[in-house]
Fold each of these.
Amino acid sequence: MLVPMRYLMTTNGGGPAPDEALFAEMGALIREMASAGVLLATGGLGQGFHVASQGGELSVTDGPYAEAKETIVSFALIEARSDEEALQLARRFWSVVGDGEGDVRPVFGSPE
Amino acid sequence: MSTVRDPGSTVAAVYRLEGAQIIAGLTRTTHDVGLAEDSLQDAMVAAIEKWPAGGIPANPAAWLTLEAKHRAIDRIRRAVSLDEKLGAVAHDERQRARVDIDDGGHDFDLVIEHEGIADDVLRLLFALCHPSLPRESRVALTLRLVGGLTPREIAHAYLMPERTVAQRILRGRRRLAADGFDAAVPAAAERQERLGGVLEVVYLIFTEGHAATVGDDWVRPELCLEALRLARMLTELAPTDAEVHGLAALLELQTSRLPARVDAGGAPVRLADQDRGRWDQLLIARGFRALLRSRELSVAPGPYAIQAAIAAAHAHARTATDTDWASIAELYGLLAHVAPSPVVTLNRAVAVARADGPEAGLRVLDELADAPEL
C-alpha cells in the first residue's frame, strides 16, 4: 500500500478572465476535492514583488503580473499516492477551468 | 480526451478518488452494495480495455458510472430471468431496482448534484459500518468501498492474507444483502448514534496504523493517512456534527507527529523526547481549525473533541517543558467524565502529577484502585 505524497498543483496566468459561472464551478470543484479528503490547502496569488539577489544586493521590482503566462496565479496542495492520482485531480481541475496551463509537481520531504 | 500513460493505474486512480461516489450512486439505484461493487469492477475492466484506444474520457468517473450502470442492468436482468425460470418470487429489492432503472428515474449519467452525492456516500458509510456486521468486516468494507483500496492493499496494510480480507468483505456484503441495504440506513432519530459507529471504524483504522498490533513496524503511516483522509471526507459529508470535526482534529494532530515518532533505527520516540521541529505544521494548523469548528458546533465536547484538545495542548508547547499540564489534567478530567476508562484515569494521573506534583497524581490513582474493573 502506497503512502500518499504531497503535490503542488499550480496554474499560470494568461487564461481567460474568470466569470461568475467559473467561480461557482470552482467552488463546487474545491468541495469535491475536499470531499475526497485530498485537498490540503489552496489559494490564489496577487501581484507582489519580484526579488533578485546578486553579490549580496537584493533588487526588488513590482510584479509578477497575473496576466503573464510564466506566472503562477493559483495553487492547490494535494495529497496523492501516485502520479496518476495527481494527474486525475489535475484532469478534473482543467475540465472545469478550460484552456490554460500549469504544473503538477511532487513536494520533496512530504511528511510521512 | 487525453493520452493514457498507464490505463491500469489511471483507472485505479479514478476508483480511489471517486469510487466511493460512484458506488454510492449505484447503490442508491440498485439498493445493493454488492451489485454496485461488482458492476463497477466490470466497468473498470472495460475501461482498461477501451481507454488506450480512445483516450481517457474528459470525465472518467462519469464514464465509469454510465458503464457500471449498464453492467448493473445486465446483471439484474440476468438475475430476474433466472428467478423467473426457477419459478421463484423475485427478491423485493431486486424488483425495486429493476423498476428504478427501467424508469430512468435516477439519471446519474453525467452530472450529479453535489449535495446528493454527499448524502449517498454517507448512507453507504452508515450501511458499511452497521453494528450488525462483524467489526473486521466494517473496517474492510469501509477501506474497500469508501477508501478505494484493493483487497491486496488492505491485506498488505494489515499484514494478513488477501484471502482473509476478501472473506471479511464477502461476509459483510452477504450480511448487508440479507438485511437489505435500505434497512441498514438509519432513521433520523438513530442518525447520531450510528454516526458514532462510523467514527469508531475510522478511529480503529487510525489506531491500527498508529500503534500497530502486528508486524515489526511501530507505525504504519499508510493506515493513519487513510483514516485521516476518511475523517476529512466525513467533515464534508456531515459538516454540522461536532464530533466529526473533533475526530478530524484529533487525527490531523496525531498524524502531525508521525515523522518524529520513530527514530532513524525505527524505534519509538516518546512524546517528551520528540524533535518538535519535525512535527508537520500544516497538519497542526488543519487540526486547530477542525477543533475550532467542532467548538463552534457544540459547547459540550465529545470524547474525540476532548482528545483533540489534549493533542492541541501538546502541539502548542514549543518544548516539552512548556507543556500546559494543568489544562491537560483538566481535559482528562472532562474525558473521564464523558468516556471513563482506566487508561483515561491513568493519563489523568500522569497529567495531574506533572501539574501539581506526584502526590496529587497518586491521589488520582487511588480512584483507579477503587474502580471495580481492575
Note: The mean pLDDT of chain B is 88.
Amino acid sequence: MAVKVIIPTPLRAYAGKRDSAEFKAATVGEALGHLTTQFSELRKHLFTDDGKLRSFVNVYVNDEDIRYLAKENTPTKDGDTISIIPSIAGGCR
Amino acid sequence: MATKVQPLTNSPNAATLSNEEILRYSRHLIMPEVGMDGQLKLKNAKVLLIGTGGLGAPLGLYLAAAGVGRLGLVDFDVVDFTNLQRQVTFGSSDVGKSKTEAARARLSNLNPDIEIESYETKLTSENALELFKDFDIIVDGTDNFPTRYLVNDACILLGKPNVYGSIFRFEGQATVFGMPDGPCYRCLYPEPPPPGLVPSCAEGGVLGVLPGIVGSIQAMETIKLILGRGENLIGRLLLFDALAMRFRELKLRKNPDCPVCGNHRTITKLIDYYEFCGVRGEEAPGPNVQVPEITPRELKSRLDHGDDLFILDVREPHEYQICNLKGHLIPLGELPRRVHELDSSREIIAHCRSGKRSAEAVDFLRKAGFLKILNLKGGILAWSDEVDPSVPKY
C-alpha cells in the first residue's frame, strides 16, 4: 500500500527539500505519521501540540478533502496520492 | 463537478458597440462563444481588482484588452524597483509613482474606451462593503492573509463572486469563491496560519512569470463568468507547479458549517482581520520580537576598535553569495540543531538581511542561555546604507 505524499513548497525546507515521499500506509493518519517521523521538523507545521491537524493545512487523498471523508482515518490504497495544501497568500508584494 | 453559470449581467445597458469597438474586438466577435452579445456583456461588466501587483498586472492588462467596461483598481502602494521583475504593467519610469495611477495610465493607453477608477487606499473593514457594492465581480490579487479573509467575507455578505488566485515561489492556486452554491475561502481555510509561518514574496522569493500565469487564469475565469461560457473553477481548486509544469485539481466543497457562508452563519459583518490573523509588523503596528540591538555604525566602530566579536549570519546560503559580512553562516531554520557551533563565552552579533530573522535568532539563543548576544538592527541592508554602500542591497 505505497502512497505518495506530496509536500508543498512552503514545507519542503522542513522535509530535506523533498517535494514528495512514499510510504506504506493504510490510512492518511498512518502516512502523515510516517512523514513526520522521517521529517520531525514537519510535525509542528502540520500538527498542534495535542496532535490535531492544523486548520490552515488541508489534506487531500487524490482530489478529495479528507474532512469530507474519514479525516485521518481515511483509508488509502496503493498508488493513492496524499496532497498537503497549506494556505498561501502571495500575490505578491 | 464543474458548474455552468448564468451570465452575471442582465440585458446590457450599453446597447451597441461603435464601429471602432467592433474593429477592436473583431477577434472576439467572430467567435460564436462571444459574438456581439458577449462583447456587450463585457462592456457592461464592472470588475474590481484588489491589488495591482504581480497578479493585478496580467489581470488589468487582459481585462482591459477584453473590453471590460469598468475596471476598479485598489492599491495603496507605490511602484518599487524590485516590483519590475514581475509587475509588468509598470516600467522603469514608474518607480516611485502610485501603483494605481501608473496602472491606470498603462491600461488607458491599451484601451482608452473603458472606464478605469483608481482607489489609492488600503482596503479595510470600514470601506470594503461600500467599495465592492457597485461592482459585479471582485478579483483577489492581494498578498496577505488578513486582506484575503476581508475580501472573502465582504463578497459573501454582498453576494459577489470572488475570483481568487495566490502564489508562492513557483506554485499557484486559483479558484472562484462566492458563488451561491459554491464554497468560500473560509470553507477551504477556516483559520489563517500564524504570522511568520508562510513567508511573503520578499522573504520567499517568486518566479516573476508565475503571477503572470495565475493572474491570466484569473482574468480568464472573470471573462467566462461575465460571458456565462465554459466551465468555471467553482468548487475546483486549480494547483499549478511551475517547475514540474503540472496542473492538478482538487475538489472544493462548500462547508455547511462555514461561519460566513454556511447554513448557520455567525459572521454577519466584517471583523478586525489583523486581529483574526494575529499579524504584527508592517501591516498592523505592534511589537516585533524585542531583543538587545546594535546599530551598523556601532558595530563598525567596535570592529575598528579591535573588539573580539563573533558575527553570526542567519540567512540562507544563496543570500550569503550575494553579499556577506564574512559571518559564520547558520540559516535560522538550522539554528536549533547547530547551536553547538556557537561559543556562549564570546560576544555574538547576529544579522540577517533586514533584522527580523536575526531578532528571532537572538531571542532563541537568549532563551538557550546565550547572554552576550546582540541583533544587528536593520541587518545587512542597514549596513549597506550606513556603513558600506559597496555592499549590494537585494
Note: The beta strands of chain A are 2-6, 20-24, 57-61, 64-65, 81-86.
